[in-house]
Write a structure and sequence with these properties.
43% of the residues lie in helices and 16% in strands. It has helices spanning 11-20, 40-49, 59-71, 88-105, 123-131, 136-142, 148-161; strands at residues 2-5, 26-28, 52-56, 79-81, 107-110, 113-116, 167-169, 179-180, 186-187.
Length: 188
């Protein structure tokens, strides 16, 4: 995955990510002459062209800019909103978790549905089984085309993307955050 830090993203978050993961592919908007000081529409266009996910604290202008690009039928980068109130350490952990889970899960949108590892198995299928309390081993038995690592990665991707500390946008509406109960299961 490739990332872009919006100009307003706290620099200690970027610095902390790079300390923990030196190979993390992230650029800062202020370091790019093409977008430094430009409007959010220009930043989102550049990020989309370079297949980058934008990290930002700016919900007030970034989300409307994304919605405007969608309205115009333009390709737009995904956005991850990092709340200003989130401690820097927690933000770093959550962003690294999103990176790790997305890479391990190999989840991609195909024909309008999220599919796992180049298979026809949908994310929804595994989430349904997870919510029903089905074990990972039983999921692999049900879908022998998947490995245990893929199932674990997919469930981690699902849990990470549904966390309430970061909001992920890939279109006009945010993914609705879920709540975890004490035993780690998702409640809607």
């Amino acid at each position: 995955m490739k990332w872009m830090a919006d100009e307003n993203l706290h620099y200690d978050i970027v610095r902390g990510i790079l300390r923990r993961a030196p190979d993390f592919d992230i650029v800062r908007a202020q370091d790019l002459p093409e977008v430094s000081g430009q409007c959010d529409l220009a930043l989102l266009s550049w990020a989309a062209q370079d297949d980058r996910i934008v990290l930002t604290h700016d919900v007030s202008t970034m989300v409307p800019a994304m919605q405007e690009q969608r309205r115009q039928g333009l390709r737009c980068a995904a956005i991850v909103l990092v709340p200003d109130s989130l401690p820097i350490g927690a933000a770093i952990e959550d962003i690294l978790l999103l990176e790790d889970c997305a890479v391990e899960a190999d989840v991609a949108k195909v024909d309008g549905a999220y599919r796992i590892g180049g298979t026809r198995v949908s994310l929804d299928s595994l989430v349904y089984l997870y919510r029903e309390g089905v074990s990972v081993e039983s999921m692999v038995d049900s879908y022998p085309v998947l490995t245990q690592e893929q199932v674990h990665g997919t469930l981690a991707f699902y849990l990470a993307s549904g966390r309430s500390t970061l909001t992920c946008y890939q279109g006009t509406e945010p993914r609705s955050p879920s709540t975890r109960s004490r035993d780690g299961r998702i409640r809607s």
